[in-house]
Design brief:
alpha/beta; TIM Barrel; 8-stranded parallel β-barrel
Length: 316
Amino acid sequence: MPAKIKPLTRKTLRGVWSALIIPWTSRDTLDEKRFAQEIRGYSGTGISGVYTGGTTGEFYAQDDATFAKITQVACREAHAIGLPVQIGVSALSTLTVIQRIKVAKKFKADALQIALPFWLELKDDEVKRFVKEVAAAAGKTPIVLYVTGRSKRKIDPKLMGELSREVPTFIGTKDTGLDVKGIKAILRKAPDIAIFGGEDFYKKLPAGGKGGYCSVTGFNAPKIVELYKLCAAGKLKQAKPLADAVHNFLYGALVPMVTQQGYWDSAIDRIQRVAGGGLVGLRCQSPYRSGTEADVQRVIAWCRANTPELLPPHLA
């Protein structure tokens, strides 16, 4: 039997959370069998949980029926292996977000991850209205704010502090672009909020960060967990070589696919996940470009030549 999943709170939201990638069929429908296998593949890796609905999970390409089935499978399979799951419910309107929250609650999501509606930039009072209405619909289910430039604005420390005081179920943030100075500024206004970045634990955990919503877990989850544990324990000297390797892999193997080939994050995350042994396939939803098997082999070759310590066991 899997271990009982502890409720997520501002105190317990910690660690390494892996983004779930959706396997699509040749007709761009959910491949439910492969998705279930993909989630179960994270069993025993040491990650703290999984989440859906960000860029990696292509939330913007899902109709209501697809969203509901993805949510059902994610909650069922993650809970079966003892992992909590955050369901991304981002959408263009409060009404649509609330409809998705109802689905997520039906399947017992452990938390909800939301970005601000992104077609028109929200003013501060609209941010507050949105978060409060979402929290009211969520009830006791906690929410995590996905703070991203794709929403056309960030939430400054003052507003973040106000939200943390006025919305008790708002427990954390995902903001991979937030630097150390920004973390400290937010914590001065919202001292108990769990701030997450990406895999950059070496710099952000000492500054008060609590973990990462990660994509490189797709390539080698146990190594990212190892890095997190070293940094969380304050063993920064021991962590430095591994932190450097992860940084080099990101900027040497992955970022060039953005700057030179024009891929979006969703394609790149698939490439590295397939390289890491995942079952998600390379197909992105149209109209966005997909990676190729040649890209997968280039990532593996780059890692073998430059950061062999990051190679997953099946490639080592």
